[in-house]
Amino acid sequence: MLSQVEDVVQVCDASYNTKIAVITALAAAAIKQNKVHDIILMVEMGDLREGIMPQDLGDIAQQVVDMPGVALKGIGANFACLSGIAPTAAKMQALSVLANDVEGQCGPVLRTVSAGNSASLPWAFGGLPTGRINDLRLGEAILLGIDPVSGHQIGGMYGDAFTLVAEVIEINTKPLSPPINFSNPALAGLRLVPKFESGTRTILAIGHQDTDISGLSWPPGITFIGATSDHLIVGTKPETLRVGSEMRFQMNYSALMRAMAAPDIQTNLLHNPPASEVRDFHDPNKHLALV
C-alpha cells in the first residue's frame, strides 16, 4: 500500500506492483534507505483482480527501468482468485510472450516470471512447455495440500497440518427453536438457527470474528446449529463433552486464513508433539482458541 512504502522497502527485497504512484513512492523510500528495491509488475491475464492491462505493460515497465531507487525484476499474473477460472496453456504462453516483449522494449533481463498461485500447479505438473515461467506463489497447495480449483487433495501432500482448537464454555439442554420471532431481520440472521433433533447444545468460544465457520470440518457426531460473532453452537450427544473440553476442527483455506489473522486466536507451532500435549486453558495469557 502507498501508506506502507517505508516498511515495504525496509523488510522486503522485492514487491508486486501495478501503479506508478506506488512505485515512485517505493523508489523514494529506497533512495532514503540507500537501497535499490526490486519491482515485479503484475499484468492482467483474465482474473480481473490486480494487474496492468497488457497493452500498457511496456510503457510502465520502461518508466520503472528509468526510475532511480528501483529495478525491474520481473512480471507476474494472477489466476483463479476472483474469477475462479484456472489458467490455461494459452494464457501461460501469452505471459511468456509478454516477458519477451518487455525485455525487447526495455532491455533488462527479467529474472522472475511469476505465473500465479496454487491453481497453476496442475498446469505446472502437466508436462507442457513452461516457456519463460519460473515462479509460482503457492499458499493453499503447500499449507493444506489442496488444489483450489478442483478442491481435490494433491498427492503426496498433507491435508491435516493445521487444526483449530476451541474450548467448550456451555453445555445445556434447550428448546429446539427460539421462543420468539425477531422483528429485526438483520438481528435474526445472527441468532439461532434451525431446529436440531436433540436438545443438547454445546457452545464453543469461537465465532465469525475468528474464522470462516462455513470452512470448518465437523468432527464425527457433531452437528452444526449456528454461530454468532464470538460463539459457535453445535449439537452433541449428552455427556460426551464437559465445560473446559476442547473440540478440534480441520479448516479449508478461507477458515485457516481468517483464524491465522484473528487477534484472539493463539498460534502454536508443533513438530511431532506427544499425544499428551494439549492446550492449557488455565494459562493466565490464554486466548479464546488455538490453531
Task: Please tell me about this protein's structure.
The protein is an alpha/beta fold and 291 residues long. The protein has two domains: 2-144, Alanine racemase (TIM Barrel, Alpha-Beta Barrel); 164-290, Beta Barrel (Lyase, Ornithine Decarboxylase, Chain A, domain 1). The chain has eight helices and twelve strands. The chain has helices at 5-11, 20-32, 54-65, 89-106, 121-124, 140-144, 185-188, 253-261, and strands at residues 14-17, 37-43, 70-77, 112-115, 164-173, 200-204, 216-217, 223-227, 232-235, 246-251, 265-266, 289-290. Strands 5, 6, 7, 8, 9, 10, 11 and 12 form an eight-stranded mixed beta sheet that branches. It has a four-stranded parallel beta sheet with strand order 1-2-3-4. α2 links the parallel β1 (14-17) and β2 (37-43). The longest helix has 18 residues, at 89-106. The radius of gyration is 24 Å and the shape is elongated.
Give a concise summary.
Keywords: Isomerase, Pyridoxal phosphate. With 291 residues, this protein is an alpha/beta fold.
Could you outline the blueprint of secondary structure elements for this entry?
Layout: H1 5-11, E1 14-17, H2 20-32, E2 37-43, H3 54-65, E3 70-77, H4 89-106, E4 112-115, H5 121-124, H6 140-144, E5 164-173, H7 185-188, E6 200-204, E7 216-217, E8 223-227, E9 232-235, E10 246-251, H8 253-261, E11 265-266, E12 289-290
Parallel strand pairs: 1-2, 2-3, 3-4, 11-12
Antiparallel strand pairs: 5-6, 5-10, 5-12, 6-9, 7-10, 8-9
Keywords: Isomerase, Pyridoxal phosphate
GO molecular function: alanine racemase activity; pyridoxal phosphate binding
Cofactor: pyridoxal 5'-phosphate
